[in-house]
Write a structure and sequence with these properties.
The chain is an alpha/beta fold and about 140 residues long. The chain is built from 3 helices and 7 strands; from the N terminus they run βαββββααββ. This is PRELI/MSF1 domain-containing protein.
Length: about 140
């Protein structure tokens, strides 16, 4: 089994209401752990946010694996705002729900860009015929 870790820094355009509510900046960091077995063609990636984890927790899992001559891409995310719902017995529940919805929406946008970018890279490397072999599953979020 081969393991890799990397620290990811991301600059995002965060809405003013989120910056005011949580006191965040436009740059955030996440830890990504990648594992694969060279004898079994499957890659698993686990990512967790390091920035602002007291307010929002995002845990993502991505798998790439062969599937009947195609590459299967499975992506799941778990998003929650425990730091806001535990403040003053849930006074900020609606803000937490809104922040979770915003994060889910942004996550889906970024996931689509990531899938499109990955497909573009594969097509550039292996030609347009690769498109018929690519199978991309729709991400789910909990």
């Amino acid at each position: 089994m081969v393991y890799m870790e990397r620290l990811i820094g991301v600059k995002q355009n965060i809405p003013a209401w989120v910056r005011l509510l949580v006191g965040v900046r436009d740059r955030s960091y996440a830890l990504e752990r990648i594992q694969f077995n060279p004898h079994h063609p499957c890659v698993h990636m686990h990512t967790v946010n390091l920035s602002y984890s007291d307010f929002i927790q995002v845990k993502e899992h991505i798998s790439y694996m062969p599937d009947n001559g195609r590459t299967r891409y499975i992506q799941n995310a778990h998003i929650e705002c425990p730091g806001l719902t535990h403040v003053a017995h849930g006074v900020f529940d609606s803000a937490a729900a809104r922040l979770e919805e915003f994060t889910l929406h942004r996550f889906r946008e970024n996931a689509e860009r990531g899938r499109s970018g990955f497909t573009h890279v594969l097509q550039a490397m292996f030609g347009p015929a690769l498109a018929q072999f690519a199978h991309i599953a729709t991400p789910s979020a909990n």
